Amino acid sequence: MCGIVGYIGMKDAFPILIKGLKRLEYRGYDSAGVALLNSEGELNVYKSKGKVKNLEEYCIGKDVSGTIGIAHTRWATHGEPNDLNAHPHYSQSENIALIHNGIIENYLAIKKMLVREGYTFKSDTDTEVLVQAIEYIKKRYDLTLSEAVQRTLKFVIGAYAIGVIEKNKPDCLVAARKGSPLIVGIGEGEFFLGSDATPIIEYTSNVIYLNDEEVVLLQRNKKPVVKTLKDEDVHHDIIKIKLQLEDIEKGGYPHFMLKEIFEQSKSLAMCMNGRLNTELMEIKLSGITTNIERFRSAKRIIITACGTSWHAALIGKYLFEEFCKIPVDVEVASEFRYRSPVIHSDDILIPISQSGETADTLAAMELAKSHGAFIYGICNVVGSSIARGTDSGTYTHAGPEIGVASTKAFTTQVTVLIMMALQIGRELKTLPEARYKKIVRELANINTKIEECFELSKEIRKISSVFTYARNFMYLGRGYNFPVALEGALKLKEISYIHAEGYPAAEMKHGPIALIDEEMPVVVVSPKLKTYEKIVSNVQEIKARKGKIIAIVTKGDVDIKKMADFCIEIPDTEECLTPLLTVIPLQFLSYYIATVKGRNVDQPRNLAKSVTVE
Ligand code: G6P
Question: Nearest residue CA, atom 2 of ligand 1?
Fold first, then answer.
């Protein structure tokens, strides 16, 4: 989704802004732009369709001087991706420039009013309406830039993170947020803005997180002045972020996605660190320990999420029902928030989100909160909006995930859900102690098995080259591995643009079987589980119709191996832990198919890493 960078200080702003935009490329975008104030106080705006490097080329020979500036990568919502619609947007007089992430819902009403006042518009964007409105209010009430921003935002309905600068005001960078993320980096007499920490950490690890409906005025060598829209003063403690530069670089891998696939043993270790005690063989998540009575009295758990996180949520249902005997509903956040869901105060809502910023998940959480439900979050990004809005929760500690196709976020989310279900099940005595111990022991050892799965990469690369012809793929799984089938299909769609469907294996007979012929590759996720015999029959049905079978099986498998065209063998483990292993070959499969097809794996078309609009 859109990315924001800003700088005010003593250094040249342009290189900082461009580097920042490159760091934000992973979020997904289709145009980029920059605005700078030069030493004469002139406000220069440059923008370009396509990648940041196009913008850089476009700026060659232009005046990019200045020690204050704002920059943006745009993921089109209102208006097609072109130079005109790209940010920053000028106001009518070209005295103010603004960048924006989010959606202004009442922009048409504001635009109408401005048109009546004689304003004209160059773009189709809601953002241009906002900058024009700021100029209008500023002139009409004779306000400073930050006052005008404050006053304008009072009338705005929707979500925004903005950065604004003004001609002839070289010591004034104004920013504000509501619903869209925005971080202020605090350096020595200088400040940085970022829609996440990645453009900032190279310069400082000291940040403040703005809250909704807050406006900040940044001036060199002065403290940031933060106010609410109602003009109340706000004090924010400076927070030290732990992110390291190497965490957000490729480290010798051709793509972030591949790096992150191989990072999964490390990220799982971080996720379990201090939570799974290998001497006592027990699990303690502090959020669960503190709130165990809420779980004891819970009539129901609702897990809500989007995309890959929703697939992790589905695995959560199997876990909580099996180990804790608590009924679980799993909800796609965008549907949940617009239904009239029945939510009780003794329900627990678990939002799962890597970024902690997904607009629909955030809204679903707020809805459940307003009905009095207890909110227990599972997020990766520390200090994100969802993490801050919960009553309690567990961070996944996967480290930054840059690849748009989520990999290590998924396995750490599943690991957190496993740990939660084990701890709650034990406390509630719904999980027999011997079984608890057995699974904990196996979980403590899972990283060795994950590393064994990494060794499959070469074999999968070869298999992938066979299937680049395919226009469709089917993924089948049962039980804990049905959500894995969905996840495998999503990974393939996202980065290779091949149509893929995930299905519960037995459901195939009710429709999808009609699609099977000698052209159709079918990935069957079939480790040794209690439904193994059933899935063997499903594989026979595919074989009888000449489908091409790629099977993910447990080492030593006999029955499926006989029928499959390709067999990928993973180590044996407890059934509830199999998703942590079976998903890895599927990640490799989609990665290699996409690279053989020459796709841009880390920046797939039309996708955004963090979807901060509806
Ligand atoms: C986007 C990303 C997906 C992600 C989903 C939910 O669609 O491209 O990879 O699974 O958002 O994101 P979240 O940050 O809430 O987990």
Answer: 609
Ligand 1 in reach of 379 Cβ (< 6 A):
no
Say which amino acid occupies 409: A
- Active-site annotation holds for 11: no
Q: Helix 264-272 to helix 446-454 angle, to the nearest 10 degrees?
A: 170
Domains of the chain as residue ranges with CATH: 3-246 (3.60.20.10), 251-444 (3.40.50.10490), 455-601 (3.40.50.10490)
The dihedrals phi and psi of 537, each to the nearest 5 degrees, come to -65, -40
- Whole-model pTM? 0.82
Whole-angstrom Cα Rg for the chain? 26
From CA 262, how far away is CA 399, in angstroms rounded? 13
d(CA 389, CA 366): 8
Mean pLDDT of 7-15: 97
| Unique residue bearing structure tokens 């303690």 | 284
Q: Which atom of ligand 1 is nearest to the CA of 608?
A: 8
Active site residue 609: yes
Cα–Cα distance list, 510 to 184, 500, 503, 506 (Å):
53, 17, 11, 8
Whole-angstrom Cα distance, residue 413 to residue 405?
A: 15
Q: What angle do CA 580, 585, 586 make, to 5 degrees?
A: 90
Span 20-63, pLDDT tens digits? 999 988 877 788 999 999 999 999 999 998 889 999 999 999 99
Pick the catalytic residue: 47, 49, 51, 609? 609
User: What average pLDDT does range 159-167 have in this prediction?
Assistant: 95
